[in-house]
Design brief:
Number of strands: 10
Number of helices: 12
Radius of gyration: 19 Å
CATH topology: TIM Barrel
Number of domains: 1
Strand order of the largest sheet: 1-2-3-4-5-6-7-10
CATH architecture: Alpha-Beta Barrel
Protein name: Methylenetetrahydrofolate reductase
GO molecular function, one term: oxidoreductase activity
Structural class: alpha/beta
Keywords: Oxidoreductase
InterPro entries: FAD-linked_oxidoreductase-like
Shape: globular
Order of helices and strands: HEHEHEHEHHEHEHEEHHEHEH
Helix content: 25-40%
């Protein structure tokens, strides 16, 4: 589908794009324990009910993860901690982590992923193994998200292409049909709407109906954005940043997700049955910066809890 069919100008006043406001409604955002510590009051930044993912980076003590989950839960936010398979030693560790999250923070949802570690620390190496273990079903988790890769993943398909990624998605689709938990694909971030939309439509054509929560990089300095994009293996849409970097007048300006989200919002408005369901923010330029951008562009749906 051509972007010409739904591209909308982004030079209109902030907060006056009903399509974008509707698309941002119910967005989620990701934090880490160390970034969450810098936020004095989440309720002054995030709308009520915002799902907050907690990224579990190798070396982060589980106690810090659970403490962050408890704080956010007590503030009234549904919490979705990461469970990176490759840093979980064994089934007993997995069940212990689940029990800690449930007992101290009332967690009933999780993002399952392989994790960025090359060599597994123990028995698990993929999110599919975590799902097969059955621990989340036994614990009564209501929502399980898994990773999606609109531009492929060279860690999974090192020779390029999407054969292994696609096979994993077919497996996850079958699993989604057997679990009572709601599932969604939380994707890696990208910078162009066209490839994202084409990928989403290709999944529907392949019979993969798991809803998609599109990963979007929040506002950040261009140099920061490029650094994270390369580190995270962002694909062809990296050229959007590279083109921007050639303009020396823009090097010191923040890169904002206005264009990609405006295009995606227009597509969703024109195609309400699209499997693209929600926006998930990676706040690369900081949680406060990201939240304020969402408030500016998301209207009433993005106002913080203290203003609702």
């Amino acid at each position: 589908m051509s972007l010409l069919n739904f591209r909308k100008k982004v030079d209109e006043p902030a907060g006056e794009n009903p399509q974008l406001e509707a698309f941002l409604d119910g967005y989620s955002i990701e934090v880490m324990p160390r970034t969450a510590e810098k936020v004095e009051d989440f309720t002054a930044l995030l709308p009520k009910g915002t799902r907050v993912y907690i990224a579990h980076i190798e070396g982060t003590p589980i106690e810090d993860m659970v403490a962050t989950a408890k704080r956010l839960s007590e503030d009234g936010y549904p919490v979705m901690p990461h469970f990176p398979a490759r840093i979980i030693k064994d089934a007993a560790t997995l069940e212990n982590w689940i029990a800690m999250y449930q007992g101290e923070a009332g967690v009933d949802q999780a993002l399952l992923l392989a994790g960025g570690v090359t060599t597994p620390h123990g028995d698990f190496h993929s999110s599919m193994q975590l799902l097969e273990n059955g621990a989340f079903d036994r614990a009564g988790f209501k929502r399980l998200h898994v990773a999606g890769h609109p531009e492929g993943n060279k860690d999974i398909d090192p020779n390029g292409g999407t054969a292994m990624v696609d096979e994993a998605l077919r497996w996850k689709q079958k699993f989604s049909e057997t679990t009572d938990a709601d599932m969604a694909l939380a994707t890696q971030f990208a910078f162009e709407a066209g490839p994202i939309i084409e990928w989403a439509e290709s999944l529907k054509e392949a019979g993969i109906t798991i809803p998609i929560h599109i990963g979007i990089a929040g506002p950040a300095k261009l140099q920061t954005m490029i650094k994270f994009a390369i580190a995270c293996g962002v694909g062809p849409s990296l050229k959007v940043l590279q083109k921007r970097a050639k303009d020396v007048t823009k090097l010191l300006l923040p890169f904002e997700p206005t264009q990609v989200l405006t295009d995606l919002a227009a597509h969703k408005s024109a195609n309400p049955d699209s499997n693209i369901e929600r926006v998930h923010f990676f706040p690369l330029g900081g949680i406060k910066t990201n939240a304020n951008w969402a408030i500016e562009h998301g209207g009433a749906s993005a106002r913080p809890a203290t203003e609702s």
